[in-house]
Amino acid sequence: MEGMACHGCLIQYGLWANTLTSNMLINMYSKCGFLEHARRVFDEMPERSLVSWNTMIGSYTQNGNEREALDLFVQMQREGTEFSEFTLSGVLCACAAEFAVFECRQLHAFALKTSMLENMFVGTALLDVYAKCNLLKDAIRVFEYMPERSAVTWSSMVAGYVKNELHEEALMTFKKVQTTGVEFNQFILSSVVAACAAIAAKIEGIQAHAVLFKTGFILNFFVSSSLVDMYSKCGSINEAYLVFSCVKEKNIVLLNAMISGFSRHGRSMEAMILFEKMQQIGLQPNEVTYVSVLSACSHMGLVKEGKKYFEMMIKEHNLSPNVVHYSCMVDVLGRTGLINEAKILIDKMPFEATASIWGSLLSSCRVYGNIELAEIAAKHLFEIEPENAGNHVLLSNIYAANRKWDEVIQARKLLKETEVKKERGKSWIEVKDKVHAFMVGERNHDRIHEIYSKLEGILEEMRKFGYRCETQHDLHNVEENQKEELLRYHSEKLAFVFGVMCLPSSAPIRIMKNLRICGDCHVFMKLASKITGREVVVRDTNRFHHFRNGFCSCGEFW
């Protein structure tokens, strides 16, 4: 209002035509969110300077009107107005938000012709566009060409690697930043923490946490949320909660990260309590919140609560469930044996079911032996993701569990004909800053003979407690003794034994796995935690399992 009053005075005293004054008015209106007023001032200017164009283009970009920013730049060129590196970097930012690859390449050529590519602002904006458009090779080429790099340049490069799921490269780039002496900002550190979360690199995550603490960025909401996410994905839910508790004023992003962490670790009660506390402090749950709380219900088979939250989402908070929410509900129903109800929900959805939804139904059919619906789900999955061998294997395993060996042969023949390859089970464990990976029946590890010898000793001790290989979890059509041999050397067992050998007795053994943990290994971990007195944390594709004193946090539901 004060700005508009000043504008009125400028008109009254005949100063509205002054270029400098008009530029200030454009800036004022855009920062107050009145873009139409800003554009009217711009259009009525009798004479525009370069600052006028830059301010208007920047205003559109900052307020989410990227297409108008690009159109205005075209108009600027047609009028023959000279531009600067700030104009070009502003338009490139608009391209990044619009994912406008074609325009970005044109601007890249433009920067080369006008010798602006070496400018730090232009180069940084250009690599940011390429990275956000998943053209990482182009982003790297621009980055390597730049003679000078700022903290923002390095931050954009690290964020680009993270966005394109090259997390190890992101961490290596951060190590280079540390040697250059460039001052860190919260954006690069937040990207580094996100990279650590994605690959469960806890040691590097702790180091990033220490840097955040030293630099004071730990107080930033988004940084704290990244740390909570990182610790929970690394299997350290208590550390995640400690970070969460240290933030005095909590926002929706931080609360969502903590609820998601509780859900991932099977601590459904804590997730639901935090969901209630969120509303008590005046924060309204959003779509992300409901994904986490529905996942928590799914992990513990809480059908009644799941249905309540799904209904609350629509009726109380006026949120339209998206495909992820429906996927969670299908999982809630399917995991508790309500497979037909889950199929009815899929049929009633206002959009096409995704691979995730059909995959959830197929997994539930495996648990409850529903061959009819398994075949329907598998048929849809073969159409949606024909390259995924896991779907063929899962259907084959459902047939095998029901002793339908002819169908098993047909399913495996189809798998062979499609020429897709099954993903091999792999587990890894971090010991003394080094990651040790194991495959089933591993032979290449330096200490594999010691590991096998130690494993035999543990198995011998476990047999005294009545442990026997649960051969029903191996679905090959072979003799019982062969099944026992196949199950004995599963990758997570080898990783566990290596952890017992190398980690201090007080340290938890944290194992990451690329597939779902099998029933026999689940029983093994429970008994092994009791015999060795060790806490064991296993992250598989579904969730985290915390094994202590012969019990698992999943409550036998995973």
From TrEMBL:
Q: Does the keyword Repeat feature in the UniProt annotation?
A: yes
Describe the location of the DYW domain by residue ranges. Answer: 466-558
Q: Which UniProt keywords apply?
A: Repeat, Transit peptide
Q: Which GO terms describe its molecular function?
A: RNA binding; zinc ion binding
Gene Ontology BP annotations: RNA modification
PPR repeat ranges? 18-48, 49-83, 150-184, 251-285, 286-321
Task: List, alphabetically, the Pfam families matched.
Answer: DYW_deaminase, E_motif, PPR, PPR_2
Provide the family line: Belongs to the PPR family. PCMP-H subfamily.
What is the name listed in the Swiss-Prot or TrEMBL entry for this protein?
A: DYW domain-containing protein
Source organism of this protein record: Lactuca sativa
